[in-house]
Amino acid sequence: MQQPHARTVRLAAIALTSAALTGLVAVYFIPVGPKEERAATVLSKTGPQGQAAYRAAWSDGRLTRADMYEIRDASGHDIDNWVDMSGRTS
């Protein structure tokens, strides 16, 4: 049985890597579904940072996974600020 040429192996590896990276980028920037849109609406009501992130996310007319990460982060800061102001501890 013959060994594959190094050039063939390299080209196959490059093609597979390119396809995987293209898929990851596409999934990251594809708009989210209705369930995630509802979650974003709820998170936008946590406070001013969440609301600002929500408005910024919809500025281009679509909501992506990257936008959801930003909204969740900003809403988390709003929740942390509320907990700090209310004096509650876990």
What is the gist of this entry?
By secondary structure, the chain is mostly helical. The protein has helices at 6-29, 34-43, 48-57, 65-86. It has 4 helices and no strands.
Q: What secondary-structure arrangement, pairings included, does this model have?
A:
Blueprint: H1 6-29, H2 34-43, H3 48-57, H4 65-86
Helix pairs in contact: 3-4
Tertiary shape: elongated
Low-confidence stretches: none
Q: List SSEs in N-to-C order.
A: HHHH
| Straight-line distance between termini | 65 Å
Count of runs of 4 or more consecutive helical residues: 4
Helix content: over 70%
Strand-pairing-aware structural class: mainly alpha
Q: Approximately what portion of the residues adopt beta-strand conformation?
A: under 5%
Measured on Cα atoms, how large is the radius of gyration?
21 Å
Please, what is the average pLDDT? 89
In total, the number of strands is 0
* Tally of structural domains: 2
Main sheet overview: none
What does this entry look like structurally?
The protein is mostly helical. It has two domains: 1-30; 31-90, no CATH class. The protein has four helices and no strands. The chain has helices at 6-29, 34-43, 48-57, 65-86. Helix 3 (48-57) runs antiparallel to helix 4. The radius of gyration is 21 Å and the shape is elongated. It starts with 5 loop residues before the first helix and ends with a helix.
